[in-house]
Specification:
The structure holds 2 protein chains of 2 kinds. By secondary structure, chain A is mostly helical. In chain A, a hairpin with a 2-residue loop joins strand 3 and strand 4. In chain A, helix 6 runs parallel beside helix 9, helix 6 packs across helix 19 and helix 24 crosses helix 25. Chain A is globular. Chain A starts with a helix and ends in an 8-residue tail after the last helix. Chain B is of the alpha/beta class. In chain B, strands 1, 5, 6, 7, 8, 9, 10, 11 and 12 form a 9-stranded mixed sheet that branches. Chain B has a 3-stranded antiparallel sheet with strand order 2-4-3, with helices on one face. In chain B, about 55% of the residues are buried. Classes of the chains: A mainly alpha, B alpha/beta. At the A-B interface, helix 12, helix 20, helix 21, helix 25 and helix 26 of A face helix 6, strand 7, helix 8 and helix 9 of B.
């Protein structure tokens, strides 16, 4: 708090206040509405039921932000997992194997590793679906799209797990420490080819991306800086058998280097420290956090203010997160309801918003894969593009269909207009049964899944007695963007049966037929373009 | 601001046009298309079609079209060079990578142009930036709102009522190059799962909620609504054509081939699509290049050969032009990991019935290099675009690229 005050004072002194004043000016706590609380819970977490939103609202703005940011006080209910490294291959025994036997052994090891990787992904998905520390997982997700490494290239579930835990440990910790540790992280060293970066034979991959994507952004360094930094990172390797970082002195280039104006026998540590000293670094990183939690690219003033908070706190992330979540700007109309839900946000927030028993995590993973976001397998080193890039004609239909599976399948009475066989066929088409190592398991689990939601009860609780009131109450619960009248009317017509469907009987809301009708109504609401936003 | 309205505007269409617009957007898109399109006696459309194959990761041009006649080549590539005896000669001093057997036949048959030294001034060695530059056709990479094909399709779309599927992308993320101000691509990985699944009595309500009636000041919401409507409208059309397609040509089961097989089906089915966009990834060969590039080029070669054969048997190859490009080539000198680092100019391929087969473009020098040891480009990729815009899409290149660039001469 004191840091923030000092900072805003310092800011006011250093540069003239822009026309609108401090772009990160805090919101008046007295103006914190239920809608604000809902916005906060869906952005700094993965959303929740109306009851959960109301609870957050009762804490007040300060209390709500503290509840989200200082999550360490709450238990980690999903708990840790262990993804042990496979026993190293006995080299001598391996030498004696025939070509065929070697291939078989390698395939077997790859399959086992793939199984471990699936368990790891399901564990992370479960943390997001059920955990009590939403911001921890949300920021871990952010960092996994920032400090990217993909299992496709790393091919080692243990390394990917270690990196994921590293990102979680520092999720809201210190960016400087995070940068240093990531640069020694085995998955990262393998992913960006630093294993091949040796004295006299530099490999530039890590040196380039650490500047272009992790710290500065393009335009803040030269090709020569990349070459010099690559030399500084020579010898930063993974000890393959131990699975840990090792500084290979024999491969390190101890020669003189000039990097971003600094001269000397620079090593990797000095390069990283010097990156953190660059003016471009804090605004770049803090701006990305803003884009992830709020919406859009911050304008130059806001970007500078965000960077000043991060740099002013010695790279501690919590002051930045608090400043964002408390700011007036975060609750502005141009931010609310303007973010396209990523596939993971779409799946997890749908489940949490309806307060249902989560579907099997492996099925959720498969659904996210289909929608274009494979956890721990980002498409390239830049991570996921985000925003409208998630939306194509195909993923729009996939999202609609997934919503149908979520509201209709987990109904053990098969009343929702989609029977188990149809749902199963659709799940197959969605790729939910086709994951490596998970075939069959997904179906068995999906078949047993009881979502536990009672849509009739949920609708009865709104107190609505007319089609119009019911539709409006559900829209308020499900959407962040307003639904235009013509679309709302189509939903009202559906409830009334004006479009030829069987009308809903408000007197028999709890009948089997009503439950089915209401689930289909929910499916239609979730199939609107507006439902893609939060 | 009123993009959507512009797209639907009746300007230049007159009363009949207004009626067609109504048919085109609201009722029966197929009927509207049948009237609007330029059709020959047999009823097939005559519009020429561009298929883009993006090789992602930076394909090593020097080991794709190998300068076997240049003694410098063996010096800079001591470990990963292609041996002259293995390479497939296609001209004085040049030979294709041994995996490109089908391409060699296509060159000999006058169906494949190999363009050397393709790049742009002040090259960028970041995958993303360089890809952005190719997609936007802006070498500074500054204006990344729209892509070159999106801008071209905006022009075509303004002429008469554009179908939603003017361009089709085979992937989850629509590429920048297909992004126009008005024109957005239809995107999917698999046509068969490209549909809405709801109960019978939901269908009419779903059609209503997918219909876009309003322009919204929020561009995000506007784009979402347009996408929802396009999805609803195009899904039946695309699925039927892909499903009904039968071909005796055997496509390989991996890499690029499955999407090219679908492209062939959609073209044969008479879809009004002018641009198809496909991908083949994995060319970022920092280490162990020899095996990896061999696998990739084998897949590419077999896919292109099958596609050409399939179109030719249906007399469709004359209408189709395929562009194969990569965001950059690789460093001239190999690295010590048996690979190559990010470089500059590379080789592009153009295949089709209307192509002048053989080698095009000046070969870049292996000794007169840019600082850092990279090739100086000899052909600006915007010259290739100029030629494709003129000859295939029939859109004024100056409108799309700001000016006309020198053509390469690969179109007959």
């Amino acid at each position: 708090m004191r840091i923030l005050l000092t900072l805003s004072l310092a800011l006011a002194l250093v540069r003239p206040a822009p026309a609108g004043g401090d772009p990160l000016a805090p919101k008046d706590p007295a103006s914190f509405t239920l809608e604000d609380a809902r916005h906060l819970l869906f952005r700094a977490g993965f959303g929740g039921t109306p009851d959960e939103v109301a609870r957050l609202h009762r804490m007040g703005l300060e209390g709500a932000v503290a509840w989200l940011v200082d999550y360490e006080k709450r238990p980690d209910i999903v708990g840790p997992i262990d993804v042990p490294q496979a026993e190293p291959v006995d080299r001598r025994a391996y030498q004696k194997l025939s070509e065929d036997e070697r291939r078989k052994l390698q395939n077997e090891r790859r399959r086992e590793d793939g199984q471990k990787f699936l368990v790891l992904r399901a564990w992370w998905m479960e943390r997001m679906l059920r955990g009590l520390r939403p911001l921890e997982e949300k920021m871990t997700l952010f960092w996994s799209g920032h400090f990217t490494s993909s299992y496709r290239d790393v091919r080692n579930a243990t390394f990917i797990w270690q990196q994921n835990e590293l990102l979680r440990r520092h999720a809201t910790g210190n960016f400087g420490e995070l940068l240093h540790e990531v640069s020694r992280d085995p998955a990262m060293l393998l992913y960006l080819n630093n294993q091949q970066n040796r004295r006299g034979r530099p490999n530039e991959n890590y040196a380039r991306e650490v500047m272009e994507l992790f710290t500065l952004g393009i335009g803040n360094y030269t090709e020569q800086d990349i070459k010099e930094a690559a030399r500084a990172f020579t010898g930063w390797q993974v000890d393959g058998r131990r699975g840990t970082f090792v500084f290979n002195r024999g491969q390190h280039d101890f020669g003189r280097k000039t990097f971003l104006g600094k001269e000397g026998n620079l090593g990797g540590e000095e390069v990283l420290d010097h990156l953190l000293e660059q003016d471009a670094c804090a605004p770049y990183v803090a701006g990305k956090v803003w884009t992830f939690l709020a919406a859009g690219q911050p304008d130059p003033e806001l970007r500078a203010a965000l960077g000043a908070v991060l740099a002013g706190s010695e790279w501690e992330l919590k002051p930045l997160l608090r400043a964002i979540l408390r700011s007036e700007a975060f609750y502005a109309p141009g931010v609310r309801g303007r973010q396209v839900k990523s596939p993971v946000e779409f799946v997890v927030s749908t489940v949490r918003m309806l307060g249902m028993n989560p579907p099997p995590p492996v099925a959720c993973l498969a659904a996210c894969d289909k929608l274009g976001q494979s956890l721990l397998m980002p498409p390239n080193v830049k991570g996921w593009e985000g925003g409208l890039a998630w939306i194509t004609t195909a993923t729009m239909l996939d999202r609609n269909n997934l919503s149908g599976i979520i509201v209709k399948l987990g109904d053990q009475d098969s009343t929702a207009g989609m029977n188990q066989r149809q749902a199963r066929e659709l799940a197959t088409e969605m790729g939910m049964g086709e994951m490596r190592g998970a075939r069959g398991a997904v179906f068995r689990q999906l078949g047993r899944w009881d979502s536990g939601i009672d849509v009739s009860g949920l609708c009865a609780a709104t107190g609505a007695r007319s089609a119009e009131d019911l539709v409006d109450a559900l829209l308020t619960r499900m959407l962040f963007a307003p639904l235009p009248e013509a679309r709302r009317q189509a939903l009202v017509d559906y409830v009334k049966g004006a479009d030829g469907s069987t009308p809903l009987e408000f007197d028999k809301l709890h009948s089997v037929a009503s439950e089915a009708k209401l689930r289909k109504l929910l499916h239609l609401i979730m199939s609107t373009p507006e439902f893609q936003l939060c | 601001m009123h993009d959507r309205f512009d797209r639907r505007s009746f300007l230049g269409l007159g009363v009949a046009g207004a009626g067609l617009w109504f048919l085109g957007r609201g009722r029966d898109p197929l009927l509207a298309r049948a009237i609007l399109q330029d059709r020959d006696a047999a009823g097939a459309t005559k519009d020429r079609i561009l298929v883009v194959v993006q090789l992602s990761g930076g394909n090593d041009g020097l080991n794709t079209l190998v300068p076997i006649g240049d003694p410098e080549y063996a010096k800079v590539r001591p470990r990963i060079r292609i041996q002259p005896k293995d390479a497939l000669a296609v001209g004085e001093g040049f030979a294709l990578h041994p995996a490109l057997k089908g391409c060699k036949e296509l060159v000999d048959g006058g169906k494949l142009a190999v363009i050397r030294g393709v790049g742009y001034p002040d090259p960028n060695r970041s995958h993303f930036k360089s890809m952005d530059i190719w997609h936007s056709a802006d070498p500074t990479g500054k204006d990344l709102r729209f892509g070159w094909l999106g801008r071209a399709l905006d022009v075509l779309g303004a002429k008469d009522e554009a179908p939603a599927e003017l361009s089709i992308n085979f992937g989850d993320n629509p590429p920048l190059s297909l992004n126009g101000r008005r024109c957005k691509p239809v995107s999917f990985r698999d046509p068969q799962s490209y549909r809405y699944v709801g109960a019978k009595d939901e269908e009419s309500a779903f059609k209503e909620i997918a219909k876009k009636r309003e322009d919204d000041p929020s561009s995000v919401l506007d784009a979402l609504r347009r996408t929802a409507e396009d999805a609803e409208r195009t899904s039946a059309d695309v699925r039927r054509r892909a499903q009904e397609y039968k071909t005796p040509v055997r496509y390989p089961g991996n890499g690029l081939a499955p999407s090219l097989r679908i492209v062939a089906g959609l073209i044969a089915g008479g879809l009004p699509t002018r641009v198809y966009y496909t991908y083949h990834g994995g060319y970022d060969t920092h280490a162990g290049q020899a095996g990896r590039q061999n696998n990739l080029l084998t897949q590419l070669d077999q896919s292109l050969a099958a596609f050409a054969k399939d179109l030719e048997r249906q007399q469709l190859l004359d209408r189709v032009t395929v562009l194969v490009f990569s965001e950059f080539g690789r460093r001239v000198r190999e690295n010590q990991s048996g690979g190559t680092d990010h470089g500059t100019a590379s080789v592009s391929l153009v295949m089709g019935g209307g192509v002048k087969g053989g080698l095009h473009g000046e070969p870049p020098s292996l000794t007169d290099l840019l600082r850092g040891g990279d090739l100086k480009h000899t052909v600006d990729f915007r010259g290739i675009y100029t030629e494709l815009l003129d000859g295939v899409l029939e859109v004024d290149p100056a409108v799309v690229l700001g000016k006309r660039f020198d053509k390469v001469g690969f179109l007959a």
